[in-house]
Design a protein that fits this description.
Elements lengths: L5 H8 L3 E8 L12 H7 L9 E7 L5 E6 L2 H12 L13 E6 L38 H13 L1 H5 L4 H4 L33 H15 L7 E5 L5 E7 L2 E6 L4 E5 L7 E3 L4 H12 L5
Antiparallel strand pairs: 1-2, 2-3, 3-4, 5-6, 6-7, 7-8, 8-9
Helix pairs in contact: 7-8
Length: 288
């Protein structure tokens, strides 16, 4: 991967048309790149800096894709917040904040700069290493599983509204309410959903056990993240080898597994889940 190669930085800085930007920090990183912050950094060939990075994705004057990595995280955070509010913001990083200029884009970008050639990878002679490209999300796997969890976190109300607690907390089914689970048909845009699964689901038990283990022995930074939720609740996101979990501290959890393509498995509160979520929230990283 490209480092701070002067030629690559100069090529990307020369009339870079900024298309979008994202944060790469322990609390906020593109989860499609990894289960935790160090893994996401490794995908870009970066050391996991404690304060994180800002990623500026754009095109140069020839239309080539570049990802400019800067250490001014607050600048990128302000730009993203402004754009989210529908405000214009000229994101122009100071060259002194540039850590690296990486060829290609690590994420899918649906827009292109006007007046320049269509997006394409830079000439290999101007790039120190192979170009970045988005993870394959066309088939079920870790990247698509994490994207599915992102969607559930963003559209919690829509997913939660499709569940009747009685559907997966049925009395006398031989399972604790923490183990009972069911596949659900979620919002159409999420592309997940399935049939009811047996109570006492083995995958659910494994995820809960590994999540409990995180409390005793903290996992890599960013494996457990806590973000805002309505009221006094928090939205929790935890990931591990082959699984993702999204939960509200005042409600249930949803689990996605690599081994079960397209399935979203609800986990009832019962007696144990609230305690687990409280413990995870205490150790989770939070946006500053």
């Amino acid at each position: 991967m490209a480092g701070t190669d002067e030629e690559a930085v100069a090529a990307a800085d020369d009339a870079l048309y900024v298309l979008t930007a994202v944060l790469l920090t322990p609390a906020q990183f593109p989860s499609v790149l990894g289960d935790d912050y160090p893994e996401a950094c490794t995908a870009l060939g970066l050391a996991p800096r404690a304060d994180g990075y800002g990623l500026v994705l754009g095109q140069d004057g020839e239309g080539a894709r570049w990802t400019v990595v800067i250490d001014d995280v607050s600048l990128v955070a302000v730009a993203i917040a402004s754009w989210d509010c529908g405000m214009e913001y000229d994101l122009s990083p100071d060259e002194r904040t540039v850590v690296a200029a990486l060829p290609g884009w690590p994420l899918a970008v649906a827009v292109a700069a006007p007046g320049v050639p269509a997006p394409h990878d830079p000439d290999p002679e101007t790039a120190d290493g192979p170009p970045l490209s988005p993870p394959d999300t066309s088939v079920w796997g870790p990247a698509q599983r994490r994207l599915g969890a992102d969607e559930i976190a963003l559209q919690w109300a829509a997913w939660r509204g499709q569940l009747d607690d009685d559907e997966f907390l049925a009395p006398g089914d031989g399972a604790t309410s923490d183990e009972a689970s069911a596949g659900v048909d979620g919002p159409e845009q999420s592309g997940t959903g399935g049939a009811r699964t047996p109570a006492g689901h083995g995958g659910i038990r494994r995820v809960l056990a590994e999540a409990h283990a995180y409390v005793a022995s903290p996992p890599p930074l960013g494996r457990v993240r806590s973000s805002f939720a309505p009221g006094e609740a928090r939205t929790l996101r935890a990931d591990g080898p082959g699984w993702s979990m999204v939960a509200r501290t005042d409600d249930i959890a949803f689990v996605l597994l690599d081994d079960e393509p397209g399935e979203v498995l609800p986990v009832g509160r019962g007696r144990e889940l609230p305690r687990l979520l409280e413990a995870l929230d205490k150790m989770a990283v939070r946006p500053s």
